[in-house]
Amino acid sequence: MNEKLTQLWETKTKDDEWWSSFVTSPLAIVVNYFVVDFKWLTPNKLTLISFLTAIVSVLFIIAGGTQNFIIAAVLIHLSHIFDCMDGQMARYRKTSSLSGGYYDKLTDQIQVTLWFGATGYAAYNQSHSVLPVFLAFIGVAFYSLRGYVKYVTLYTEMSQDNYYVDILAKQLSTVKKQNTAGLKFGFSANLKWFIAEQRKILLFNEGVFIFMLSLALVLDVLTPMLWMFAVSQLYLGLMRGWQRGAQLQSNQKINVEK
Description:
mainly alpha; Four Helix Bundle (Hemerythrin (Met), subunit A); 10 helices; 0% strand
């Protein structure tokens, strides 16, 4: 087995998102195999390339038309491949940084907002109905809520006493996952991993968006996809909010004024 390829495979996030897990992340490993040793190409530059590619895809969505939608779908996938490559490259080179992770997550959030905002606009131009715009707004708002409730939870816990130190440690701690599939495993193990990964589609996170949005653009069915986006994020946003509130209630040690 090629040692470089094996090392790159080890940089793959062990609990990747749905579409990332078995499509864009493996493709990123293949591309990284050829470019990871280019010293001038850094993880932060890849983050920037990913973001700029996403911006160009947004312009094609806004332009409208079947051809432009297909180009946008391809660019969205390229953007996500670059997005996977930056973290893989940083881990391969052992140059991971807090700022790199921050900018990666920040651009991800901006991209999702722009992608679905542009799709809502394109669907409005097709249907001359304001409903797709409303659906895009609901989806983006409640997708953002899923991350915001984490901040609110940490802030609320930290506003109490030194007890927040233990809570913060639990929030930030991660359990290192062991590989159960990959280049070193057989067909049966990889098939089981692939089947198990399919349940992640119900999380409706960025990896699912990449697949869902690009498919909707290729098939030119924007409004049904926006319905799915809005309903899933409304449900998951409210569910995350309720779960974090229940977590605070169970962890609360002292009374906090509302």
